[in-house]
Amino acid sequence: MDIQQILDYQKQDAEIIKLERELDESPDKKIYLEMKNVVKDAQNKSNNLEKEAGELIKQYVEMKKAYDAEVRACGEIVNKDPKALKVDELEKTVSKTNQMIESISLLEKKLMAFAEHVNSVLADYDSTRKRYKEAREKYSMHKQANETLSAKLLPEIEKLKQDIKKIEAKMDPTFLQKYKQRRQDKVFPIFVPVVDKACGGCRMELPSASIDRLKRNGFLECEHCRRIIYNV
Ligand SMILES: [Zn+2]
């Protein structure tokens, strides 16, 4: 195993990882992904509120109709000439009128509470639409910024990848495979020196049998972090 060659390869790959990370962890990407969810949520919410408000307005119109009919009926009774009524009819009329006034007042209270509810749903709808619009604008802005960053970094990454492919062609396929597997699992650096009888990556102390094996073979896989330890 040509350790220097592997270390050169790892060093160049570190550049690629740095750029890949810069792209992957870009604040613009984070924001636009967040905004994507906000937009989706706000859209769902405003759709639901729109439906709810439509239903409530329909119910309100029905209630108002019933209320108006009751008021009209009450007016008709009140407008009757009391002199034309017999005493028992007059008593009945008075009691009926009182009942109607009570029921009208109750309906009035219900209507007012209902109107308040309708207004709060409409206000909620307005603020949700506003939030949707703002999130959409923010989403577009940060997505655009992220695309600009991608357009800058992707060709750089591609060029570096082409460069290290030349080294890959000369490397031991077994080590290359191990390397790529660990890289995929986000272990980095992958090849580390032995440091004071411990893994140079995770610092776990190595048993003496492992040290012997390391000396014999020139390399050893750390049982703890899976890095490949090389002898120095
Ligand atoms: Zn380790």
Count of folded domains: 2
Principal-axes geometry comes out as rod-shaped
CATH T-level topology of the largest domain = Helix Hairpins
CATH class of the largest domain: Mainly Alpha
Structural class: mainly alpha
Oligomer: single chain
Structure description:
This protein folds into 2 domains: 15-166, Helix Hairpins (Orthogonal Bundle), CATH 1.10.287; 172-232, no CATH class. The protein contains 5 helices and 4 strands; from the N terminus they run H-H-H-H-E-E-H-E-E. It has helices spanning 3-24, 27-78, 87-168, 173-184, 208-217; strands at residues 191-195, 198-199, 219-221, 228-230. A 4-stranded mixed beta sheet has the order 2-1-4-3. Strand 1 and strand 2 (198-199) form a beta hairpin. It is rod-shaped, with a radius of gyration of 39 Å. Zinc ion (ZN) binds at residues 199, 201-202, 204, 222, 224-225, 227. Residues 199, 201-202, 204, 222, 224-225, 227 line the site of zinc ion (ZN).
